[in-house]
Amino acid sequence: MNIDLTIVWAFIIAFAVFAYVVMDGFDLGIGIIFPALGRGAERDKAMNSVAPVWDGNETWLVLGGGGLFAAFPLAYAIILPAIYPPIIAMLLGLVLRGVAFEGRWRDPSHQPFWDFAFTAGSFVAAFAQGVTLGALLQGVEVDGRAYAGGWLDWLSAYSVLTGIGTVIGYGLLGSTWLVMKTEGVVQDHAFRMSWKLFPATLIALGAVSLYTPFLEGEYWNRWFTFPNVLFSAQVPVLVALITFLLYRALKKRRDYAPFLLTLALFLLGMIGLGISMFPYVVPDEVTIWDAATHPSSQMFMLVGTLFIVPLIIGYTGWAYWVFRGKVGDEGYH
Amino acid sequence: MFDGFDALLLARIQFAFTVSFHFIFPAFSIGLASYLAVLEGLWLKTNNNVYLDLFKYWRKIFAIAFAMGVVSGIVMSYQFGTNWSVFSDRTGPILGPPMAYEVLTAFFLEAGFLGVMLFGMDKVGRKLHFTATLMVAIGTFISAFWILSVNSWMQTPTGYEIAANGQFVPAGSWLTIIFNPSFPYRLVHTVMAAYLTTAFVVGAVGAWHLLKDKADLRARRMFSMAMWMAALVAPLQIFAGDMHGLNTLEYQPAKVMAMEGHYDSHPNGAPLILFGIPNSAEKRVDYAIEIPKASSLILKHDLNAPLAGLDTIPEDEQPPVGIVFWSFRIMVSIGFAMLGIGVFSLIARARGKLFDSTWLHRAAIVMGPSGFIAVIAGWVTTEVGRQPYTVYGLLTTADSVSPLAAPAVGASLLAFVITYFIMFGAGTAYILKLMNKPATGHEEAAASGPLRTAGITPASADSTRRGQSGTMAEEGA
To answer: Which NCBIfam families does this chain map to (chain A) (predicted)?
Structure first.
């Protein structure tokens, strides 16, 4: 048995990040499209649909951060100071929206304030996550074992573009989630929003994909040289396929397919990201092997992870199962 | 703005602020989760609906406190990297795994079952719902286990070696790292502190409603339960605190010197300084009220045992005495005041006056928030007392900080302060509003508002059925 634990851990962290996007993307998306929803019942239903699950969803973000610290401490130590302002903004955004869940119901007289906090928090968190991704991809300055750039280096046209793209994409996850979880007038509205956010998401995805190979890094080579091109060429083909399926699912007013296909779109984005970065964790500076923790630490964590993550997926799935079905259906209230 | 400030100091203030604010919520929710499990368990066992009403009453409060704990906790998992990146790089191989285990074994467990505990009683049946409540309670404990192990390793590092790249890496067994010397004491002391904090909050709410209506069945029950906790746990906690202190004396003597205000060594028995004003410039305690030789008695169990003072520690390795001296006294005074309430309640109970003694009720209300103050004071004592180190004796705080400019740290600190005060201020106000209402026989079925939105009566089929027998039980009581 000669398995490289560093690669195993790179996949586990990537899985955690993807799981986070799957779980919290729609959750933040609900906040992003919130102002477009009608006051009263429509907003209530949207919020209801995520109330029982949002803090479980955000736990994946803690696993992403905590896991990066645990498995690749050097990467954690370099990346977080490099993207300090967006990370702080994201955290504060999550505070705003987290408390808004309670505040909105406890204090109807200040509901406009809490609605604003919910949207602003969700928007800022999503935008900051996109900016973080862009800032990482465009490269950060490293000296020795530390970040060596300034505190505004993350800000660029590219990172703003990835930020906007993430907001739009999460918005689509949110609207297709509502399609799945609601019916009647609210669902009609969710469909209409999806029809707007769907092309917007495609434009954002296209813009980021076109911009990335022109960044300073090695992306051009990594994407377009043999044998990598064999993999990277599949991504646009699959994106086209998913786009077609999603178009049809929205056209035929399917309940579940639009949300699941949007997730598939995000998965493809993640795979593209993986191809672009591997084997670096800080592009062109620090590889996963440079950043990997001690082998004993890798092993100690792996044993537990292999047992516990399936359990987590099991009981999280159960919790979603308990609250399955349309909001407003039998039993939800 | 902030250009004239020291980035290190700002980073320290920021961490102190975010971690103190965060810990207020777990200090409450660790105890409250267990209390909820006890209430639901008693309800299942006795079928007495008073317990179910109390469960639903406190569950609403738990939902708010827990949500605030979650979001302020996410901040903590990133603060290490944003503000203390060198520390993160150096200690990652040792501290990363237990923190990852905290996420995997505790946070997911809590969050996964929380939704069912808050919203799912009518969906999963009683037994499964009780299981969910238990899982949330167990999750809060597991979380305390791991994070206190991490903190304790920073105070009393063991089982490590230093690699060529400067990282602390595991050497030998992980058990040596996890069960480092101060961990068992810190775990017991902190968990009991959380139980006491919750007990005094519950006691104060019970007392508040007893003052308005001493026949209030539910207020009586919660007050009685809380006073049992005070009477039983407060003395245990004082004992555990003493043991923890002895452990600190062994591994971090400078911290104990600062707590005691011992600038000088005492070869023939050290006095116990009850109160005084530490004067670090002159290296003495002004206006000291002291008991001769009592400190040696407590710490060494011998009146004449010699005790070293800060004069034996190089100046640049000493913690700031003033803060540690005062925070320690605040914590200890509150501990004894809690014991006082516990004894007071036992006497009142023995006389059959537990629900009639308005002075006891008033005192319990005053003591309601005392647990939070004691907990924060305790953490200040141990964290400031281990300065100037993050990893005791090995890595200094100054060497741990991120390479960040002061304006970045200062601006984010300001943003944290403003956001936290508005958001958590509002959350706390809602909690107080809920506490101000008495628990009733028709607590809403849902812990939180979202479930009421259909506009139907909140009582579920289940609670309606139980509600009838509950009414009879009340009449019979």
So the answer is: cydB (TIGR00203)
